[in-house]
Design brief:
The structure holds two protein chains of two kinds. Chain A is mainly alpha-helical. Chain A is built from 13 helices and no strands. Classes of the chains: A mainly alpha, B alpha/beta. Chains A and B meet through α8 and α9 of A and α3, α5 and α8 of B.
Chain lengths: 354, 297
């Protein structure tokens, strides 16, 4: 067998033969424009009214136009494919819309209240009618931090150990515990507050405090941490456990040296999800932490403020200044939660670095 | 145990690597006839299985397996899928009991002592009887070096010089030259064959007397398989190796003894065991002959 040597070949350049040609891109753009024009025309001519009508008509038109366009150029399979992608894109837009809308509103209304004094003072000496550059939310910031911290310290070991029991050790109690944890994650937050109120505050301490708030939050946080950790641990392949056992490790050492480190990033996510779950809780804190407008760093005595309480109270006053304060509070809380998520990503993401 | 004193025929294996076509099986087996005789290794008594039965739930999967593993030899266990080979070797280091619903009967004597005797420290058994799994499973959260030394950490063993042990294990597993410049890279960054040799190195670090290998090459390409077989030949001078394999050429190449397992729908049974050369050239049982000549399975 011989191979015919080709004449001097032109240099081969890398390309993307599968990418859309300019003509195809122009046609796609044309389809979108056509749908847009069509939706305006239909809304103008028919009884339909409002922004929703534009969006709805545009969505229907783009599907129909894409379907016809793809059917004519590529056939029925491609046409069906385009309908499915259109629905997927619509789903993404519907999801993103409220989120961006909320972020925009919070940023737009919160920025007027963002003054340096916000982070340095509390509301001890200020009322709802005071200008925005007096008073602040330091008490809410520290209060939320302390109470979430207490909840974290309590629920982190309990939640992760529960998950380890459910996935690694297993036993007679696995099913009932699984059921209870699931049921607990559906408990309304006010119930957690009422439980602490009736089990500890009324019979023992008599007064609300930050510690009580932390306990109430822990009740809400444990099921979130436990369930998410359980899901994460279930993803760790069984052969890693077997390898650890086969190397002469006890079960506990295999779990602590192999399974938990392998699940590290997921477990950190579980913790962050737990924190995010409780950071915005209002109801139990109103009941058991006592609210308060004064900076209080001692969780064992006296009322302690928190973000949700601060926001709720500022809104209920109803004055222009206090509503601006509330928006500023929401803004700061949101930014903190974002920072938390990014930190979790950074901490958890270094696992497979080469 | 001092590995350098344990002498074995180091030359076996290597030159036979080329003769791998099915038609040359019998010539391979003839070479194997020159291999070790029972008890030729000087490494203690070895491992004896006495009347092993195993169940999963109500289903009996192994029936009355009795098999001796002479120290310093390589024994291959062959047979069609589902005949209980893996289950059998998992009874030898007490990994069988990790499967829910598992049960067993019989004795496994390690140096004359039953490993299922009550009061036995099972983690010590698994230190002496190491295991390499079918799928390479390096620990993802650990570097190459940490992976090799993971057993020490897991079993809380102390060693004088970790670096020496690390190098020794990687050399014996045939991986040292490939990874010596990147010991702090993660185990997952290696190729499949390298990962499997890393797992072998990891098993060696706790100095087992016996190494169980459960189809160690079934997920690997031929080149990596060859490297692992070379590793097995090297190791067999200083330890007892029991390897489950679906690859009959591999069994012929690496083993001194071969056991043939078969299940006719019921529990798996040991049809025949003997020197590898005999199993492949003149098996006593017609079922063995049919299997090794490729007529079924």
């Amino acid at each position: 067998m011989s191979i015919n040597k080709p004449e001097a070949k032109p240099a081969v350049k890398p390309g993307k033969p599968w990418a859309s040609t300019p003509r195809e891109r122009a046609l796609d753009l044309g389809a979108i424009l056509l749908a847009a024009v069509g939706s305006f025309a239909l809304v103008a001519l028919s009884e339909l009214k409002g922004k929703l009508a534009y969006a709805g008509v545009f969505f229907v038109l783009i599907i129909v136009i894409n379907f016809i366009h793809n059917y004519l150029s590529r056939g029925i399979a491609s046409a069906k494919d385009s309908v499915a992608s259109s629905f997927a894109v619509a789903g993404v837009l519907v999801t993103l819309l409220p989120i961006t809308s909320i972020l925009y509103a919070v940023f737009e209304r919160g920025k007027t209240g963002l003054k340096p004094n916000l982070f340095t003072t509390d509301m001890k000496l200020n009322g709802p009618n005071d200008p925005i550059d007096q008073g602040g939310l330091l008490h809410a910031l520290t209060g939320s931090g302390i109470m979430v911290g207490i909840a974290l310290i309590i629920s982190l070991p309990i939640g992760i150990l529960t998950a380890i029991y459910l996935t690694e050790i297993k036993g007679f109690f696995t099913r009932p515990i699984k059921f209870l944890v699931q049921a607990m994650s559906g408990v309304p937050s006010i119930v957690a507050g009422l439980f602490i109120l009736s089990a500890i505050v009324f019979p023992i301490t008599k007064t609300p405090s930050g510690l009580m708030g932390g306990l109430a939050l822990a009740i809400l946080m444990i099921p979130t941490v436990a369930r998410t950790s359980e899901e994460v641990l279930l993803l760790i392949p069984a052969d890693l456990r077997e390898a650890g056992i086969a190397l002469g490790g006890t079960q506990w050492r295999t779990i602590s040296q192999i399974v938990v480190p392998a699940a590290k990033s997921g477990l950190i996510t579980a913790i962050i999800l737990g924190v995010a779950r409780v950071a915005g809780e209002t109801a139990p804190l109103v009941l058991v932490s006592g609210g308060g407008d004064v900076l209080n760093l001692n969780p064992t005595s006296g009322p302690m403020g928190s973000f949700p309480f601060y926001i709720w109270k500022a809104f209920t006053f109803g004055t222009t200044e206090s509503i601006a304060r509330a928006w500023a509070g929401i803004f700061v809380l949101l930014v903190l939660i974002f920072i938390l998520f990014f930190a979790a990503r950074l901490l958890g993401g270094d696992r497979n670095k080469k | 145990m001092n590995n350098s004193e344990a002498q074995g025929p180091l030359d076996k294996g290597n030159e036979k690597m080329e003769t791998t076509t099915p038609s040359s099986l019998s010539s391979v087996a003839a070479n194997a006839a020159a291999k070790k005789k029972p008890g030729s290794g000087a490494l203690g008594v070895g491992l004896e299985a006495r009347g092993i039965h195993a169940w999963f739930g109500d289903k009996m999967v192994l029936k009355d397996i009795s098999l001796d593993f002479w120290s310093g030899t390589v024994t291959a266990l062959i047979g069609p899928s589902g005949c209980g080979k893996s289950t059998f070797i998992r009874t030898l280091n007490r990994m069988h009991e990790f499967i829910p619903g598992a049960a067993m009967a019989g004795d496994v004597l390690l140096n004359g002592k039953d490993i299922y005797e009550s009061g036995t420290d099972v983690t010590k058994i698994r230190l002496k009887v190491g295991m390499v799994f079918q799928k390479p499973n390096p620990f993802p959260s650990m570097t190459i070096a940490d992976n090799v030394l993971a057993g020490l950490k897991l079993a809380q063993l102390k060693v004088q010089n970790k670096d020496d042990l690390l190098e020794e294990c990687l050399v014996r597993a045939g991986l040292w030259s490939e990874v010596k410049d990147r010991l702090s890279a993660y185990g997952g960054s290696l190729s499949g064959g390298q990962q499997q040799r890393l797992c072998i190195a990891r098993s060696l670090a706790v100095r087992p007397e016996i190494l169980l290998m459960d189809e160690p090459c079934s997920a690997l390409d031929p080149g990596s398989t060859l490297k692992i077989e070379e590793t097995i030949s090297e190791l067999s001078s200083s330890m007892t190796i029991i390897i489950v394999t679906h690859n009959m050429q591999q069994a012929a190449r690496v083993s001194d003894y071969t056991g043939f397992f078969l299940s006719d729908g019921g529990p798996g049974e040991l049809v025949e065991v003997g020197p590898t050369s005999e199993i492949f050239s003149k098996p006593k049982d017609v079922r063995t002959e049919n299997y090794v000549t490729g007529r079924f399975g």
